[in-house]
Structures are given as C-alpha cells and as structure tokens.
Amino acid sequence: MKVGMLYSRIRRDEKLLLSELRDRDHEIEKIDVRKQQFNISEPPAKFEGLDVVVDRCLATSRSVYATKFAAAYDVPVVNGPDVAEVCSDKVKNSLALVEAGVPTPNTDVAFTKDAALESIEDFGYPCVLKPVVGSWGRLMAKIDSRSAAEAILEHKETLGHYEHKIFYVQEFVDKPGRDIRVLAVDGDPIAAMVRSSDHWLTNAAKGAETNEFELDDRALELVEKASDAVGGGLLGIDLMEVGVGDDGEPEDYTVHEVNHTVEFKALNEVTDVDVPAAVVDWLESKAASESDAEVTA
C-alpha cells in the first residue's frame, strides 16, 4: 500500500502512524501542504500511485482545500472533503447531528451582538459562547453574567474576522467534571477515554486527566449515529454524560462535537488497545475495498 500523508507539522500522532506504516513495509509519501502546489487539473507528482491519502493538516482551511484536491485527483482520502467541511464548522456539525436525531446541546446562532445577547439571556447563566471554527478549547467562554456577556460580545464584534461575527451560543451542560472522547472508524469504536478536570473545559490539550472508558450500549449507539451524521471516516466523537445519578450512571449522553483530524496520542497512552495499529488496519481495509471497487467497475 502506498499512503500519502497531508501535513504541516509532524506531531506525536503522525509519528505513531508513520512508525506503524513503516513497520508493515508500506510506502509513504509525506506531502507538506505548506510547500505543495495543487493544480486544478494536473495532480502533483507526489500523488502518483497513491492508494489512500490521510489528512493530518493542522489548519482547517488547508485541510478542507487539500482534501478537495485529493478527491478531485480520484485518490481515496481520509477524511473526505465533505466530512472535513461538516466537522470543521460547529454550526454545520450541530445541524448534522440534529438532522440525524443525535442528542446535542441546544444552540442558537446569531449574527449581531444584540441578537446574541438576547440568545444568552434566553439560555440564562451560565451559558457558553464558542467560535464556529477552532480546536483545543481555544476562544471558548463560559458566560456567568450579563456584564460578562456584553464585554465578550463587544470584543468579538471588534476582532475583524467574519467568523467572529457569527455568534454560536450554547446551553451549559452540567457534566460530572469530565467528558468522553471516542476514536472511531466508520462508527466502530477503536477505544475511548474520559477527560477529567476541575476546570469547566475538559480538553486533553488543556491539561485534563485522561483514563480509559468502557462504552455502554447507549454510547455505542450514539457513536455510530454521530459518525453516520457527518459522513463517516476516522473520527473523534465527544460525548458528555447528562442526568448522572448518585450511582454515577448517566441517564443519557449528549454529543457535543465530532472531529475529523482527530488526535489520539493521549488515548494511546491510557488504553490497552494499540491505537495506531488499529487505525492502519482500517486504512488497509479501506484501500483494499477501493481497489476492489475499481476492478469491478
């Protein structure tokens, strides 16, 4: 198998994947999107003979456009541009989950400061204001009062970029000090972990404590439905427990986000599952199925 990897920086996650691919004697073509030109009709030389392309771009814009070109060159890409477009935009993400009947936090989107303030007042305090594009818990605000809302909205309104003029206001979910990250391939979980913190943000990138988590039947159902909702692929699906009783068991879960260029190094450290090996197993099966489809076409 010849695998292309779209990247702008080789992090620990990419090193794990590259090491596993090399151990299996797969040919690797690393494609630094900062240096590559993508012609609208002629594929770059680096795309020649590729069986599959894996998108590991850090920047959302590069991810969306580079995968569009890979698809245009008729090279199977993980994850495809349609999946990248839905997952990289919180508004599209939320709409896709709701359309598929997946429980997700109630959300308003407004386009002016006054309209956003009205949404915040309707949700009550606390509530959450998020950027429509972003990761690692950056630029997210838990709003506890009207004065805080007014100040944050004014800052966003003056930041300049059009994305800051899209106010994504969400109910605050009273989770039990943790959330759940599931790494899944086409809705089939590879492994899961809880990310726990005293802070309201429980991202591993924010220093949350991580431990392995066993998914129950309801969580498994929602992982599959959330994956299908955004188009499938190699995904990070984030859930929060709601209505947790004295026994510690949740009444249900809510899916607050699906990620398309998912990081898994923290998960690999806390689970007995060999995460990069499982990912490469899936890549091999995907490349094989694409090859079989071409033969029978």
Q: Percent of residues in beta strands?
A: 15-25%
**Strand arrangement in the largest pleated sheet:** 11-10-9-12-13
Distance between the termini: 20 Å
Nearest-integer average pLDDT: 91
Radius of gyration: 20 Å
What gross morphology would you assign?
A: globular
Portion of residues within helices: 25-40%
Main sheet makeup: 5 strands, antiparallel
List SSEs in N-to-C order: EHEEHEHHEHEEHEEEEHEEHH
- Decide which structural class fits the backbone: alpha+beta
Low-confidence stretches: none
Number of strands: 13
Count helical runs: 9
Outline of this structure?
With 297 residues, the protein is α+β, with helices and mostly antiparallel strands. It is 36% helix and 25% strand. A 5-stranded antiparallel beta sheet has the order 11-10-9-12-13, with helices on both faces.
